[in-house]
Design brief:
alpha/beta, transmembrane, Rossmann fold, 9 helices, 6-stranded mixed β-sheet
Length: 274
């Protein structure tokens, strides 16, 4: 009985060694032979089924939650605080494009003359402890003008006296929008570039602007009478008479011939400090 048992043990060891050698030989074969469609697959040794492993639940990462919470708080703070923060009251530099606003702004704020181009965004500076805002006059930025008007304490309004006829309509539209505001800031209307050839006098510019404002006012009244509320009617009552700055403007308007490049700044500073 013992010799037979020893024989069976040796046979099992030999079979196990043969299987191991055979598996090693298969592993050493070239990759091309293993991938050949004609090669017969080697019989695989049956695997003993293993009990399924219990999958571990991934631990939650607190970082995304923290970042998301911080972003939500920041958005809420912007909505409740910064987004609704009112702008500081300021004097405004207004007028059509190329009227000379930015040149005057740099003289007032920096006490220097700078060659400028038509600006496309507002710029702020301090003049005698007063905040001054240079507001672009381009038609496409009219919404920016409307926002800035809500904080206006004084308005320096500039018109190119050498190009007054062509600028008259754009200047009148801006003035009319100023007259539509609930506030009544006084205006200093500078007829700039008085030294240029063909520059119009303040009296002539006043009449030209009054004519354009009269047209706008009649159009607004007509639109209002037809029930169209898309255009606001300015608080102007001319009693059927032709519009004039002296009689019908809802705020004080002073016209002055000026050169933003050469004239002294005393008149403008005095107006801003009143």
């Amino acid at each position: 009985m013992l010799p037979r048992l020893l024989f069976l043990i040796c046979a099992a060891l030999s079979a196990s060694r043969a299987v191991a050698q055979e598996q090693q030989a298969v592993a050493d074969e070239p990759l091309q032979a293993a991938e050949s469609a004609d090669a017969a697959p080697e019989p695989a040794e049956p695997e003993v089924p293993q009990p399924p492993k219990k999958e571990e639940e991934p631990a939650s990462n607190p970082i995304p939650l923290a970042v998301g919470g911080a972003a939500a708080l920041a958005a809420l703070a912007l909505l409740l605080g910064g987004g609704s923060k009112k702008k500081q009251p300021a004097a405004l530099l207004l007028g059509p494009s190329n009227a000379g606003k930015t040149l005057l702004f740099h003289r007032l704020v920096n006490n220097e003359i700078e060659e400028t181009v038509a600006s496309m965004k507002s710029d702020e500076g301090i003049v005698d402890n007063k905040l001054l805002v240079d507001v672009p006059g381009h038609r496409r930025l009219r919404n920016e003008v409307t926002k800035e008007l809500k904080r206006a304490t004084k308005i320096v309004f500039m018109v190119d006296a050498a190009d007054a006829t062509r600028q008259a309509k754009a200047a009148a539209e801006l003035l009319y929008e100023i007259f539509c505001q609930d506030s009544r800031p006084s205006l200093l209307i500078l007829c700039n570039k008085k030294d240029r050839p063909g520059a119009k006098t303040p009296a002539r510019i006043k009449l030209t602007l009054a004519s354009e404002i009269e047209t706008l006012h009649k159009t607004a009244k007509t639109m209002g009478s037809t029930g169209d509320d898309t255009q606001q009617v300015a608080p102007i009552d001319t009693a059927g008479k032709f519009f004039s700055f002296e009689s019908h403007a809802p705020c004080a308007c002073t016209f002055l011939a000026y050169s933003a490049r050469e004239d002294k700044l005393d008149a403008v500073r005095e107006f801003l400090l009143k």
